[in-house]
Design a protein that fits this description.
alpha+beta; Thiol Ester Dehydrase, Chain A; 5-stranded antiparallel sheet; 8 strands; 31% strand
């Protein structure tokens, strides 16, 4: 994988809406998780594998570790760009790093999440963590690790 500083990030642009905030107009901590998942699903799709197709084949990517460092409040009405990098695999874990970047370029929060690939195709009650990635997912992960070929257009 390319060094994160050299790799283009996967980007997702969002606006903080009333449903994302608490009573004071500050973005609620749970909204960060939802946006991070949306960014991962969109990046995976851009890399050639729709998450719906992955699920239809009996595979899921549950979160097994998550940390967020909040640096600045995100407020109702602000535009935020999520910059995400897919890091090199660590055993069965697929790590991602995401920065929540405000319009002025400052970083409001940084997050790290680790996923594992789980096979549910035999039975939802018999989950199996896969150590080897299927070819379709392996190819998509390789594309994700390289980052997008060009910066995607940012629009709301």
């Amino acid at each position: 994988m390319t060094d994160q500083q050299e790799q283009r990030p996967w980007r997702l642009l969002r606006r903080v809406l009333p449903q994302h905030t608490d009573h004071a107009g500050v973005m609620w901590h749970g909204a960060y998780l939802s946006w991070m998942e949306e960014a991962r699903v969109e990046a995976l799709s851009a890399a050639g594998l729709a998450y719906a197709d992955l699920s239809a084949s009996g595979l899921e990517l549950p979160v097994v570790n998550l940390s967020i460092q909040y640096r600045q409040a995100l407020l109702h009405g602000e535009t935020v760009a999520l910059h995400s990098w897919v890091l090199s695999r660590r055993g069965v874990k697929l790590p991602w790093r995401t920065a929540f970047v405000k319009a002025d370029g400052s970083v409001a929060a940084e997050a790290n999440v680790e996923l594992v690939l789980v096979d549910l195709s035999n039975s939802p009650d018999r989950r199996k963590v896969l150590r080897q990635l299927p070819q379709t997912l392996s190819a998509a992960i390789n594309r994700l690790e390289r980052g997008p070929e060009r910066d995607p257009p940012l629009s709301l």
